[in-house]
Amino acid sequence: MIRAVVFDVGETLIDETRIWTRWADRLGVPRFAFMGVIGGMAATGRPLTDAFGMVRPGLDWAVEEADWAAEEPDSLRNNFDGDDLYPDVRGALTELRRRGLTVIIAGNQPPQAKAALERMGLPVDAIYTSAEWGLEKPDPAFFLKVAEVAGFSAGEICYVGDRVDNDVLPVHEAGMMPVLIRRGPWGYLSAETPEAAWYGTVVNSLDELPGLLSPA
């Protein structure tokens, strides 16, 4: 029996379109081109940060991010807010809690993401980020921490994310139930891999989760 549902953030709860279009504008690259390169990183299993060096050879992503923050300290820059939530998020989280499941957010995110998520007033029991834990998926220790904060055994936890490498295979290895959401570059590509069906359950919307995890 599943008693807790834990959610990834980017392209699971948050539509990252605005983030990447702002980055494209910042780098002086056509938006379509930058999105395409990001898709290429997803398709070839390369780190997302490689996309920056590909469109701007020699670019130091961390330095560019720091410069941007110094120039525009009050702008959203590469961060997100409530307008970036996918439309099915609030309803699905609300229904999961109504059915008695513990709902937690825990994903690979920088320090500022926690405050951004907390400001949204989402119907969840807790919010955590990799930055505060000093652990990142797919490290098995990340999922041990997930079980610790959830307060349930691994077999009673479902983890929902958009990537096979970060959210299906390591979740399965941890003894939890993996669910892959089919959206975002990684989600659409991952859903086509054999591992997605072998080790996880693929859904097209978060609205499918209550019926899947806690049938009425």
From TrEMBL:
The keyword Hydrolase applies. GO terms for molecular function: hydrolase activity. Keywords: Hydrolase. PANTHER family: HALOACID DEHALOGENASE, TYPE II (AFU_ORTHOLOGUE AFUA_2G07750)-RELATED (PTHR43316:SF3), HYDROLASE, HALOACID DELAHOGENASE-RELATED (PTHR43316). This is HAD family hydrolase. The lineage of its organism: Bacteria, Bacillati, Actinomycetota, Actinomycetes, Mycobacteriales.
